[in-house]
């Protein structure tokens, strides 16, 4: 989901990369002289904790990915896509139904519910939940994050692992994802052109090679989709509006579709597009290589667990002949 573009009930703003001597990503200082733990989020805000964070409230799906990877459970979660990803079998399954609810909308979570949950930390989306910082003053700090490339997701996991006192769990999960991706790169013939597209109607957008999913798929497939006109992606998020005419010019071998529904009865994006003649001309459509993927994971998760699932599902669909 991109700024000014509705995607899965979420609006994603550009990642404000925090620069450090080691490069891009979240800056973490573990056990400075005071014995506290500090983390700098994607807005440049420094959050400091006197002891490891234990009680995390999630108002964004990425938070669910982080807690699951760290072997934690959120004390409260937002509704909609946040609870949907929590209930996925690779995350918390049926237990995801039982987590305390944070009411309100994705854009305006209910602060009273957060107060009642008594969190040590709230994790939200940079560019969407920034205004909550003032409302949560005196209640709990809010960590505002938004990784763009998969390496940023890895660094975020390690950073949150540090402030929760779970650096080993974070490293184990990070290593597992990177090993999975490396194995997929080794096995992949990388001879098939793939695309991730998303939308709720025929006015769709695509994820480019600089978008989060694109940074993963370009490692295991031909992924030629780029931001050639910066004005189409003013916030540098790696997603641009697209047309069937341009799609046909590249003619991908496989298409992964993230469908979002904002009204009951809304058809999947690929089903809506199937009514259009140009869509039916695409090679992927003619050869049955269009996959409607789980949008809460492929589109909204953005953590290493979600990206690992993306790798597994993409490899199986792109290269079914591989062992």
Automatic annotation (TrEMBL):
Compartment(s) of residence: Cell envelope
Residue ranges of domain Fe/B12 periplasmic-binding in the record: 55-322
Alphabetized UniProt keyword annotations: Signal, Transport
Xref: SUPFAM superfamilies: Helical backbone' metal receptor (SSF53807)
GO cellular component terms, semicolon-separated: outer membrane-bounded periplasmic space
Gene Ontology terms describing biological process: iron coordination entity transport
UniProt xrefs under PANTHER family: IRON III DICITRATE-BINDING PERIPLASMIC PROTEIN, IRON(3+)-HYDROXAMATE-BINDING PROTEIN FHUD
Sequence similarity: Belongs to the bacterial solute-binding protein 8 family.
Name of the protein this chain belongs to: ABC transporter substrate-binding protein
Organism taxonomic ancestry: Bacteria, Bacillati, Bacillota, Bacilli, Bacillales
